[in-house]
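Encode chain A's predicted structure.
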Amino acid sequence: MFYILLALALKHHFKTSKHQQLIGWFNKEFVKSGKVDTRLGSIIYKAFEDRTDSDYGIFIEFEKAEVQIKLEEMKEFISKIEELINI
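Encoded structure for chain A:
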């Protein structure tokens, strides 16, 4: 999700290697401006939180049902960002 969002950012001449900066840029330019549904901002933020927790937490486990939901959200997010890239 980070890399497809980074591709969108590069299309708009925004460069960063930091997840938080990229998410902040996306929220400012696309979510708060109403160009995309706020759900997309929530999806990427939650994915970033989960990534941070799994990288730095002692032990993180996800239930199968929760993973299925996250997978569907990821597919939705990628599809919408692809649309924005191709506009």
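The mean pLDDT is 94.
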